UniProtKB/TrEMBL annotation:
Gene3D superfamilies found in the cross-reference section: 2.60.40.3710
Origin superkingdom: Bacteria
Organism, scientific name: Serratia fonticola
Keywords: Membrane, Transmembrane, Transmembrane helix
Protein name in the entry: Uncharacterized protein
Transmembrane segments annotated in the record for this chain: 21-37, 76-95
Length: 394
């Protein structure tokens, strides 16, 4: 036990011994330096100031007290030093652990991508078929913008239509968003689409414009074939026929109210009103306007059809806001034209495969007159002057 106490005292006094040895070494060094420089600078007589004597005396007394305390209380001082060392070691370990603690993985910086949208208007409903394909409003983005979890799925938030429509938004692929309305869109209607990119699109996608519009195809018609018709069974029955084609079933009452027909003879300035009749197909997509029977005109003329504004459809649609007109020329009493000429192979009594020339005229003529006016020549199969063609057939 005494040996342990002696060892503790030795260890505790060792710093004081080293300090005293250091100061003694410094005193010897300064003494040697003084002797070395004495021949050069001579004798120096220096007295320390009063404050230095007080400070050095206080330091010396404190040093001696500390050294004496080591001899008197070796256990307490050893325990205190041990506690201080443990505290310092713990502080150093804690500081080192804090510097090297596990750090959360920082996400990579977001790379934003600017995109744009092209809105395609829905196709018109095909009322000519029994079941038309559903209409679709298509939003085509320039880049892949759909969130990875939403591709190919229905969209319930992040996009809206005004006025509101029943239907479904769906991502067809990563860059195509399609709206399929539950019912056909009212023809001629216009809609606004508002997008919320933060909800609808992938996080890295930026969209400058979030408001778009589209329109449903408007109700309209076009004037089809117009002709001056002569009944082949009764050449005296002549009339003008106008075909009107609609892109949706027409409301017959509103259509017939907007029809006006007149006849202008030769170069007359006034127009004579004509009565008319109508024929419709089963779906009311085509109308044929027939003029009243026309008489032969000495100098010809024109039949004028006018379709006014306000024609409606039986489906939900706009009224047609513009008028259209059409013309049919009426030939003169003395005009005769060849409307068609074709060769056919026909079978007659007792013979097979006779060639016949079928000629259609714009008016009835006598057989004898046609026979005197028509001439026919049988031409060789190839040009006699073309030697190559003749050799091939030979």
């Amino acid at each position: 036990m005494l040996a342990i106490m002696d060892l503790l005292k030795f260890i505790l006094r060792l710093p004081f011994t080293l300090i005293k040895g250091l100061f003694r070494l410094l005193a010897v060094i300064f003494g040697l330096l003084g002797r070395l420089f004495k021949p050069v600078v001579g004798n120096l007589n220096w007295n320390a100031p009063a404050w230095w004597a007080e400070v050095s005396g206080g330091v010396k007394r404190g040093f001696l007290r500390l050294e004496g305390g080591v001899d008197k209380y070796p256990k307490a001082i050893s325990l205190s030093l041990l506690v201080l060392l443990c505290a310092a070691g713990g502080a150093f370990y804690g500081w080192h652990w804090w510097l090297n603690r596990p750090q959360p993985i920082e996400p990579a910086p977001m790379v934003y991508q600017e995109t744009s949208v092209r809105v395609s208007d829905p196709e018109p409903v095909n009322y000519a078929v029994q079941k038309s394909a559903p209409q679709q409003v298509i939003l085509t983005f320039r880049n892949s913008v759909a969130p990875l979890t939403d591709a190919g799925k229905a969209v319930e938030k992040g996009i809206s239509i005004s006025p509101a429509l029943e239907g479904q938004w769906k991502w067809n692929n990563a860059w195509t968003l399609v709206f399929t309305p539950k019912n056909p869109l009212p023809m001629g209607s216009k809609y606004e689409v508002k997008l919320e990119p933060a909800v609808l699109l992938a996080p890295q996608i930026k969209l400058a414009n979030t408001n778009y519009s589209f329109s449903a195809p408007a109700f309209d018609y076009q004037l089809g074939q117009a002709e001056y018709y002569q009944d082949p069974q009764d050449p005296q029955k002549r009339s003008a026929i106008f075909n009107v084609k609609f892109n949706a079933p027409v409301d017959v009452a509103s259509f017939e109210k907007q029809i006006a027909m007149g006849l202008i003879e030769a170069n007359a300035k006034s127009e004579k009103k004509l009565n008319f009749s109508l024929v419709y197909d089963a779906k009311k997509l085509n109308a044929w306007v027939h003029s009243e029977p026309l008489k032969a005109l000495d100098h010809g003329g024109k039949v004028h059809l006018v379709l006014g504004k306000g024609i409606k459809s039986v489906v939900s649609a706009n009224e047609i806001a513009q008028s259209k007109d059409g013309w049919v020329s009426v030939p003169t009493l003395y005009s005769l034209t060849v409307k068609d000429a074709s060769a056919q192979v026909v079978d007659s009594d007792g013979t097979k495969g006779q060639r016949a020339l079928i000629v259609a005229f714009s008016d009835a003529i006598k057989d004898k007159d046609a026979g005197r006016a028509v001439k026919a020549w049988l031409l060789p199969q190839h040009n006699p002057n073309d030697s190559e063609a003749s050799n091939e057939t030979g």
